[in-house]
Specification:
- The structure holds 2 protein chains of 2 kinds.
- By secondary structure, chain A is α/β, with parallel strands linked by helices.
- Chain A has 3 domains: 183 residues, P-loop containing nucleotide triphosphate hydrolases (Rossmann fold, 3-Layer(aba) Sandwich); 64 residues; 248 residues, 3-Layer(aba) Sandwich (Rossmann fold).
- Chain A contains 21 helices and 20 strands.
- In chain A, the strands form 4 sheets. Chain A has a 6-stranded mixed beta sheet with strand order 6-7-8-3-9-10, with helices on both faces. In chain A, strands 16-17-18-13-19-20 form a 6-stranded mixed beta sheet, sandwiched between helices.
- In chain A, a hairpin with a 2-residue loop joins strand 4 and strand 5.
- Chain B has one domain: Orthogonal Bundle (MetI-like fold), CATH 1.10.3720.
- Classes of the chains: A alpha/beta, B mainly alpha.
């Protein structure tokens, strides 16, 4: 497929981009050189803020007003894109270069039918009549594996699932047979199984059309299984580029090495000592159901049931003291609902027993239960009050559960900060002055202030970059060694959970499918859904290398 | 703080608004010392005079110096408006944030009551209250505050609802915090920015409302220097000298514009995303 001899479809040379901000210019891209040949897939891997999306927008010639292109050229099919006028670019965009975005929910217009959106591209760029375009669009939708294209044409975005929407976006991107397609994290917003299917679709379409592709992602495993060549970008600079196999097996640059080492690999266990399964369980969840929505006011007079949504259906599980129980499942599977029920954020039916004491409702949750069961949320930005200092935030658990006050409490807070490997001086800072990883450490510190017996981690690493994720996980493991805390670790990252959990619970649409010890999770007698989930996960980098 | 002021002065609205409001505050604080004449000294010979070196803005129907009257009237007019807005805001914000926190039926009951009160136009509402309590400064102030509270309650509820969904509120609930702590310490600080902006805009409404009440004879009583009253009294002499009508009207407009611009400026500054 790769044609090294022919002129590249896209070549970026010595390109630098600054954003002019109130605090002076911010160097978003520094001396970027990158080329994509016909039929080639080039992966661009980097963490958040590395400038990978800026590069995509530079190629699309759609930069914000404060962008300043310092140097370099962007050549597309031999001609300089930067010298083109706006109207010339408009003719190229969507026709010869197209783009697939991260979130299909926001990249489609919610007020237009899917058919309208895809046929519009054909009318605009192929000069088809309305009728022809509609027929052509329907054929395109069939081509991207949508089962009922004729009906799909009349649907609106909210009537289609995330995977279906992303298929429509991909169909739109391929509609005019472009020479170059930029994929900006196309599967990040999708579920594991759906993203696997989208990836397969992308690969077959790419092979069929031979379109040159720039595949942007933060997920090394994904890029390793997709791209021919990879460029690793860090803080606006490409630190390493080359063939996929070479980069992932013999990385040269220290940053690339660190990135590859940070990718979770299920064969490397981090879990630590096994819990005592003969002991009395720390927490038991028995027949817990959560139902959202309330009966309509007049509903009680009629027989009609309100439109309830079941968050959890009779979930049963038990956690041993010091155990790490992983809960995996796709979005909407009820993982977080269970976490919320256990921390008194959701009403529930059924029984939770903590150290033998039964709890039937939120009102039964005593102060000692609140102290012993803590929760850490996914987004540290949202879980720390932006108007309070870190010291204030961390003082709350002490005030609520302990006798500490004044100087003694400040000393405790300093000690706590050091325990999560943050300088004690951070107590005076505000959350927005910290990085994402640091904020999550503060959230962890807040949960551990009361020395809890069970900490519920609700997707706590999903919003973090891989390298930061690795250090946060390391911290959690250290804290467990020290305090013997049990974790309920909720995640959608199967590779990660296989590294750290002792047992894994699989959830699907509110039901608990099964709980299995981690070492048996790949066994053939597992439930069909579990196996499906495992197959969909991209294999870690080291093993995918040829 | 210096950074805050620097950012406020960067936008033209913020800069102009701040300057106007500062000028008004100078008049409020030092008005009586700056006034060149006794505001109540009448002079039969100097009635309906246009602006001159002696009477900067001319004189009114009793020969009183309009400039001096405006300088001294600033105190009652502006302070009344600011205090009334403050009271209305505090009451409204507490009701709104509490309602958002409680949610469900309680929220429904509180907000529908607020809606019912809001359905009466604020001027009419103020008129009713003043009529019931009798016309005086304090009653007018009370009337305007009560008239403002429902609107503020609505706005603060809307902002608080989005704060309510944030994880830091969930974290506080999961920790077992008391409801009053969550409302006052977690939610209220995060709803303050839009409320302050709304408040500055409402100060100008309050001035207008007070002026209207005085104009109708239900607020301040003669010979008070309240600006609205001055406009009201000047109306009868408009055909003799338009200056007595123009100057207090301009003063009201200037204060209203000043606070409005300041509100616009604050909106940009208090938004952490800009």
């Amino acid at each position: 497929m790769t044609s090294d001899t022919a002129a590249p479809v896209l070549s970026v040379e010595g390109y630098s981009l600054d954003y002019l901000t109130a605090k002076g210019p911010f160097h978003a891209l520094k001396n970027i050189s990158l080329s994509i040949g016909a039929g080639e897939i080039v992966g661009l891997v980097g963490e958040s803020g590395s400038g990978k999306s800026s590069l995509a927008w530079s190629i699309m010639r759609y930069l914000p007003g404060n962008a300043h292109e310092v140097s370099g050229t962007i050549r597309f099919d031999g001609s300089d894109l930067m010298a083109r006028s706006n109207s010339e670019i408009e003719a190229i965009r969507g026709k010869r270069i197209s783009m697939v975005f991260q979130d299909p929910a926001t990249s489609l217009n919610p007020t237009l039918s899917l058919g309208r959106q895809i046929s519009e591209v054909l009318i605009r760029h192929q000069g088809l009549s309305k009728k022809q375009a509609w027929a052509e669009a329907e054929a395109r939708l069939a081509h991207v594996g949508l089962k009922t294209p004729a009906q799909m044409m009349h649907r609106y975005p909210h009537e289609a699932s995330g995977g279906e929407k992303q298929r429509v976006v991909i169909a739109t991107a391929f509609a005019c047979n472009p020479e170059l397609i930029i994929f900006d994290e196309p599967t990040t917003a999708l579920d594991v199984i759906t993203s696997r299917q989208i990836l397969e679709l992308f690969q077959s379409l790419q092979q069929e059309t031979g379109v040159a592709s720039l595949y942007i992602s933060h997920d090394l495993a994904l890029v390793a299984s997709t791209a021919h060549r990879v460029s690793v970008i860090n803080r606006g600079e490409i630190v390493e580029q080359g063939k996929v196999g070479e980069i992932f097996t013999r990385p040269q640059d220290p940053y690339t090495k660190k990135l590859i080492a940070a990718v979770p690999d299920p064969s490397v266990r981090l879990a630590g000592s096994e819990p005592d399964y003969a002991a009395k369980p720390l927490a038991e969840v028995e027949n817990v159901s959560v139902i959202y929505g309330r009966k309509p006011f007049f509903g009680r007079f009629s027989k009609k049931a309100g439109n309830h949504v079941t968050g959890n259906r009779a979930v049963n599980l038990a956690i041993q003291p010091g155990e790490i129980l992983g809960i995996v499942g796709e979005s909407g599977s009820g993982k977080s609902t269970l976490a919320k029920a256990m921390t008194g954020l959701n009403k529930f039916e059924g029984e939770i027993r903590f150290e033998g004491r039964p709890i039937h409702s939120i009102a039964d949750m005593s102060d000692s239960y609140r102290r012993d069961v803590q929760i850490i949320f996914q987004h540290p930005d949202a879980s720390l009050n932006p108007r309070k200092t870190i010291g204030d935030i961390l003082s709350r658990p002490y005030r609520l559960y302990t006798e500490y006050s004044g100087k003694a409490m400040r000393d405790e807070i300093s000690r706590l900060l050091e325990q999560v490997k943050l300088p004690a001086s951070y107590a005076a800072r505000y959350p927005h002055q910290l990085s994402g990883g640091e904020k999550q450490r503060v959230a962890i510190a807040r949960a551990f202030a009361s020395q809890p017996k069970l900490v519920i981690c609700d997707e706590i690493t999903s919003a973090l970059d891989v390298s930061v994720q690795a250090s946060v996980i390391e911290l959690l493991m250290e804290l467990r060694e020290e305090f013997g805390t049990a974790y309920l670790f909720i995640t959608h990252d199967l590779n990660l959970v296989r590294q750290i959990a002792h047992r894994i619970a699989v959830m699907y649409r509110g039901d608990l499918i099964e709980i299995a010890p981690t070492r048996d999770i790949t066994a053939p007698q597992r439930a069909a859904y579990t196996r499906q989930l495992l197959e969909a996960v991209p294999v870690p980098v080291a093993r995918s290398a040829p | 703080m210096t950074d805050f002021i620097k950012r406020l002065m960067r936008s033209p609205q913020g800069a102009i608004g701040t300057i106007i409001v500062l000028l008004v505050l100078v008049a409020v604080a030092f008005g009586p010392y700056l006034a060149p004449h006794d505001p109540e000294a009448m002079s039969i010979l100097a009635r309906f005079k246009g602006p001159s070196a002696d009477f900067l803005l001319g004189t009114d129907q009793y020969g009183r110096d309009i400039f001096s009257r405006l300088m001294i009237g600033a105190r009652s007019t502006v302070i009344m408006a600011v205090v009334a807005t403050l009271i209305g805001t505090v009451v409204g914000a507490l009701v709104g944030v509490t309602s958002a926190f409680l949610g469900g039926r309680a929220d429904e009951v509180i907000m529908r009551t607020v809606d019912a009160v809001m359905s009466i136009p604020s001027l009419l509402f103020a008129l009713i209250i003043v009529n019931l309590l009798g016309s005086s400064d304090i009653n007018a102030l009370l009337a305007v505050s009560i008239a403002f509270a429902p609107g503020m309650a609505r706005i603060s509820r809307a902002v608080a609802l989005s704060a309510r969904k944030q994880d830091f509120v969930s974290a506080a609930i999961a920790r077992g915090e008391k409801p009053n702590f969550i409302v006052l310490s977690e939610m209220l600080p995060n709803t303050v920015a839009p409320i302050i902006v709304e408040m500055t805009i409402r100060v100008s409404f309050a001035i207008m409302l007070f002026a209207t009440l005085s104009f109708l004879g239900l607020g301040a009583q003669p010979p008070s220097e309240e600006w609205g009253l001055m406009v009201s009294e000047a109306r009868r002499y408009m055909h003799i000298s338009s200056w007595i009508l123009v100057w207090p009207s301009l003063a009201i407009a200037l204060v209203a514009i000043g606070f409005n611009l300041l509100g616009d400026g604050l909106r940009d500054v208090l938004n952490p995303k800009t």
